[in-house]
Write a structure and sequence with these properties.
- The complex is a heterodimer of chains A (about 425) and B (about 575).
- In chain A, a hairpin with a 2-residue loop joins strand 13 (about 230) and strand 14.
- In chain A, helix 2 (about 70-80) packs across helix 12, helix 4 (about 115-130) packs across helix 9 and helix 7 runs parallel beside helix 9 (about 265-280).
- The model of chain A has no long low-confidence stretch (mean pLDDT about 95).
- Chain A is α/β, with parallel strands linked by helices.
- Helices cover about 30% and strands about 25% of the residues of chain A.
- The two termini of chain A are about 35 Å apart.
- Chain A has three domains: about 5-45, no CATH class; about 60-115 and about 295-425, Rossmann fold, CATH 3.40.50.740; about 120-290, Dimethylsulfoxide Reductase, domain 2 (3-Layer(aba) Sandwich), CATH 3.40.228.
- Chain B folds into two domains: about 1-55 and about 455-500, Urease, subunit C, domain 1 (Roll), CATH 2.30.40; about 55-85 and about 100-430, TIM Barrel.
- In chain B, helix 9 links the parallel strand 10 and strand 11.
- Chain B is globular, with a radius of gyration of 22 Å.
- The chains are: A alpha/beta (about 425), B alpha/beta (about 575).
- At the A-B interface, helix 4, strand 9, helix 5, helix 10 and strand 18 of A face helix 1, helix 2, helix 3, helix 4 and strand 16 of B.
- Strand 9 (about 130-135) of chain A pairs parallel with strand 16 (about 340-345) of chain B, so a sheet runs across the interface.
């Protein structure tokens, strides 16, 4: 497929490929993709966007047969009209797409769940249970003197974190580069934290499954409780005690975690312990948390859902009234209870879950469909094919996404609005 | 195509009309003179005996932006419970619920618009837009139907400004930056929250008094206030600097508040939610009312205005930019949880749920202090009716609050149910004042419009936007103000008998004073070096507000520049 760019190269671009939402990229070529200030994730996102492989990518289909957009929209509306309570899942979209989906959900009594909410919900549960104390990217860049990354190397999911916030020597308060400490991160991954000058991150414990006990030990030490064991999670108590001292003497320690990297059950309890550690540190010094997001517009979707329904996902509408239940309204559970699935994934070609439900897929033109959905409507990629607005992972920043090229792909919000109109 | 509102009793303080019976003609969304050709009147509403006011304007209500959305995310149990209990709430003693009082402290954007218009409010202003978060605030306000909206951008804790102040940049440079912020954030006013304190908290300072220095910048809150109030004044923005004083909620903070008035140097200054800043340290509990001292100072200093931030008893949530004081207050949160954030070298926030109880000494006295201020400040043009929604109570409690102000018997009955120790520390029952309809119209219409600098809202003169509310005159003022007979927005009937009959979308009000665009040169360098987004993305274009086909931007002309 040819890329008919909207303006001459180079084009400055805001990148939706991860929660950093970097807006300093400059697209210099599309064949092959070349980007100034790129990273592994942005290259892969724009390559995927500019090299659509599906030869029939612009054609919607009903029961696997190519058709026109009108017919596909009518067919989708019919499925939703028949459904008692459809599940709208995936939700890989930005603010404008989510606004449209919220209206459709209210009208069709739908259940809403994001593809990454298994992770996101752990953070939400923590925040709803006791709250937290967090910070944002510019504060980290200018203030952080210690960065403690728990169970995540940060770089795999947010590749430019260190380049932009840690190794960049420009800071308002002329501080040295922060010390990077990994807790519960495999040695081979810890390379992500190695500075350009060769300075390596310290690594405390390589087993992320031991994070819960290590955090609990840190909490105990911070309030001067005596630890009888000699090692916790394979790490000597002395090492952990040294870490506690480092955090206590830091002026602005930033503690980073990624809910999706915690592969143990009830990880929300561990996140709560991390928050407890941060709160206790703030009794005497300053420290703050940064929960990393998972991607595919999760921050945008939860924020938009919150101001339009009063709740983040997982939520649903019953006779137009919003309800919230972050346990029962999961995709996995609702695939058993619901009678129709609308799967949305516009940034990436994420396949819908296997299901026997009547299903509509609205998404990335290259979406791989293992089984034929009743309706498939390819739509534009936000930030490439159409404009939009996106929340950064720290939710304090929302940035506009640009339209970079012209093609026939409709926007998600247009398609959703037309389906909603058919339901009237 | 002219609509006639016939024989209403007009309360229009902007034109000194106190209940005169007159007709109003509406054409193309505006109030017009009586037409020469009566045949053009196509629709007539007989308002004989009805009370007619301009649509009400809430000059301080947290309706959009990060803090409110955090509150929504944080308190799902609260919202769910309310959904179920709206009709069968156990009645808090000092708050008699009407069927229209939803008690919803964190309504959705949609509900915000609906609940406001159902009470006859046609505009509300978000008082705490952190500039870096302005896009979110406008997205939320853009999804708020029925009413006009706008906001005040927060400065005075942003590192860019504090650096300028520390470097003793000249006032013109400060003015240009302040004007640039107004443009970039699509705001109509400037607010300062805990001047310098939010930034100082990031350096581990836990309190900051008016003349205490920020440890890094070595500037004091007084200097921050003086620089910003002067900038606002010299730029000719109508809205005086909106000031949330240092020491929010702390016993003894009334002295800071009085000193802050002194720091104004005679320039216009608005002290917001002043109830939370009117506390003394007398009595056994070292917490007392300083309403009398505060009211006396307000009466004396004609350059100062204030809104009250009345508390009412119930569960609510406090959402503030004041991370320093909210972190300190987190131990009082109920339920016990708090979200505190440091934000982008720009601002901070603190969100804590609160449950105000009439049997709690402090809460009961807070309630009394708010009312004491209302009743002791003589000039209704300089005191405004707010609950600092949702911090003191949800805005849906305004009809109840209006009754407390207008009905002494009702007020004293409520007072008699309070914590007895608190009763003994308040002179509320000795205050006999009852607000008149005319005074209510000043506080909630004419005064608010004048304060913010809205050119054609808040009054019923020829040329005004036809935002009009019609009430049935009832002895029970709560019932009266909870459910207007009619509300017209831009001349269209949108509410009938307290229910929305047509969904419309209001405008976003802004002020855009002239400035030297050269200010962007240094700002661009600052953004490139220290911020994590580009300067161009910081700025919000008009198109972002009207692109969805619903919103519009109104640029209000600076008013006081030519005073």
């Amino acid at each position: 497929m040819k890329n008919n760019l909207n303006s001459p190269l180079p084009i400055s671009v805001t990148c939706p490929a991860c929660g950093m939402l970097c807006d300093d990229l400059s697209l210099t070529d599309t064949t092959p993709v070349s980007i100034k200030n790129s990273c592994a994730k942005s290259i892969s996102f724009f390559e995927q966007s500019f090299n659509l492989s599906n030869s029939n990518a612009y054609a919607p289909s009903v029961s696997g047969k190519p058709t026109d957009l009108n017919t596909a929209i009518k067919a989708a509306a019919e499925i939703l009209a028949k459904s008692q309570a459809p599940l709208i899942a995936g939700l890989g979209t930005e603010v404008q797409g989510m606004r449209a989906i919220m209206r459709l959900a209210a009208k069709s009594n739908a259940i809403l769940d994001h593809m990454h909410s298994e992770s996101t919900v752990r953070n939400t549960l923590t925040m709803q249970n006791g709250g937290w104390l967090t910070t944002t990217l510019s504060e980290i860049k200018n203030r952080a003197d210690v960065i403690l990354a728990i169970g995540t190397d940060i770089g795999s999911s947010h590749p430019r974190f260190f380049e932009k916030l840690v190794w960049d020597s420009e800071s308002l308060f002329s501080k040295p580069s922060p010390e990077v400490i990994y807790l519960g991160v495999p040695e081979e991954k810890a390379k992500a934290g190695t500075a350009p000058d060769g300075k390596q991150a310290s690594v405390i414990g390589n087993d992320s499954s031991k994070v819960p006990e290590m955090i609990n030990a840190l909490n105990a030490m911070l309030i001067n409780k005596k630890i009888n064991a000699e090692t916790i999670g394979g790490v000597s108590v002395a090492t952990l005690q040294a870490l506690v001292e480092k955090l206590k003497t830091a002026q602005y320690a930033v503690i980073v975690w990624s809910a999706s990297s915690f592969k143990f059950s009830h990880a929300e309890l561990t996140i709560q312990s991390i928050v407890q550690l941060i709160n206790q540190l703030n009794e005497t010094t300053r420290a703050a948390g940064l929960p990393l997001n998972s991607g595919d517009g999760d921050s945008s979707v939860n924020n938009t859902s919150a101001w339009l329904s009063g709740y983040p996902t997982r939520n649903r509408f019953v006779n137009g009234k919003p309800e919230y239940d972050n346990y029962h309204f999961s995709t996995q559970k609702q695939l058993q209870n619901s009678d129709a699935l609308l799967w949305v994934s516009t940034f990436n070609p994420v396949s819908p879950p296997q299901t026997t439900l009547a299903s509509i897929v609205i998404g990335h033109p290259d979406t791989k469909l293992d089984s034929t959905p009743d309706v498939f409507i390819p739509v534009g990629i936000p930030g490439v094919d159409h404009a939009g607005a996106m929340f950064r992972m720290d939710s304090s920043i929302t940035l506009p996404l640009k339209k970079l090229r012209n093609n026939e792909l409709p926007n998600l919000s247009e398609v959703i609005n037309r389906i909603e109109a058919e339901l009237a | 195509m002219i609509t006639l509102l016939k024989n209403g009793k007009i309360y229009d303080p902007a034109h000194n009309k106190d209940g005169v019976v007159e007709d109003i003609y509406i054409y193309q969304g505006r109030i017009v003179p009586k037409p020469l050709d009566h045949a053009k009147v196509t629709q007539t509403y007989d308002l004989t005996g009805k009370v007619v006011m301009a649509g009400a304007i809430d000059m301080h209500s947290h309706i959009g932006g990060g803090k409110v959305n955090i509150a929504r995310m944080m308190l799902p149990e609260y919202q769910q419970k309310q959904m179920q209990e709206i009709k069968n709430l156990s009645e808090p003693e000092a708050h008699i619920c009407t069927p229209y009082c939803s008690h919803h402290a964190t309504p959705t954007a949609t509900d915000t618009g609906f609940r406001y218009i159902e009470m006859g409010y046609t505009a509300a202003f978000e008082p705490a837009i952190s500039p870096i978060n302005a896009r979110q605030a406008h997205l939320e306000m853009g999804d708020t139907p029925m009413i006009d909206k706008g906001g005040y951008a927060m400065l005075g804790n942003d590192d860019y400004f504090l650096r300028m102040l520390a470097a003793k940049k000249d006032q013109k440079a400060i003015n240009d930056y302040v004007a640039w912020i107004l443009h970039a954030t699509q705001a109509i006013g400037i607010k300062v929250v805990n001047p310098g304190g939010i930034s100082a908290f990031k350096f581990n300072q836990r309190r900051l008094n008016l003349d205490e220095n920020h440890q890094h910048y070595q500037v004091s809150p007084r200097e921050v206030l003086q620089s910003l109030s002067r900038a606002v004044h010299e730029l000719g923005i109508a809205k005086p600097l909106h000031v949330h004083c240092n020491n929010l909620g702390a016993a003894g903070n009334f002295e800071t508040t009085l000193n802050t008035m002194g720091a104004s140097n005679g320039l216009p200054m608005h002290l917001t939610h002043i109830q939370f800043h009117s506390y003394g340290t007398e009595g056994d509990k070292k917490f007392s009312s300083a309403a009398a001292q505060i009211a006396e100072a307000l009466n004396k200093n004609k350059n100062i205005s204030a809104d009250v931030g009345q508390i009412l008893f119930n569960q609510t949530v406090t959402a503030s930019g004041d991370s320093m004081m909210q972190h300190l207050n987190a131990k009082h949160a109920n339920p016990k949880k708090s979200v505190i954030m440091d934000i982008e070298c720009d601002a901070g926030c603190g969100v804590l749920p609160f449950k105000y109880r009439d049997q709690n000494y402090v809460n009961a006295l807070q309630w009394a202090i708010g009312l004491e201020i209302f009743l002791s400040v003589e000039d209704p043009w300089r005191i405004f009716l707010t609950t600092d929604h949702p911090n003191g109570a949800p805005f849906t409690s305004y009809p109840h609050l209006i009754r407390l102000l207008m009905d002494k018997t009702f007020r004293n009955e409520a007072f008699a149910k309070l914590n007895l120790d608190a009763q003994s520390m308040s002179n509320l029952t000795s205050l006999n004042r009852e607000y008149s309809l005319y005074e209510i119209a000043i506080m909630t219409r004419a005064g608010a419009s004048k304060l913010i600098g809205l050119n054609d809202r808040g009054h019923l003169g020829v040329g005004a936007n036809a935002d009009i509310t019609v009430y049935t005159d009832q002895e029970n003022r709560e019932a009266m103000f909870a459910k207007p007979d009619y509300v017209f927005k831009n001349g269209e009937l949108v509410v009938k008998n307290g229910s929305v009959v047509k969904v419309v979308w209001g405008a976003t009000h802004t002020a855009k004073p002239a400035f030297d665009i050269g200010v962007e040169k240094d700002l661009k360098d600052y953004f490139d070096r220290y911020q994590t987004i580009g300067l161009d993305n910081f700025k919000i274009s008009d198109a972002e507000i009207f692109d969805d086909g619903r919103g519009s931007v109104v640029v209000n002309k600076n008013q006081h520049a030519n005073d």
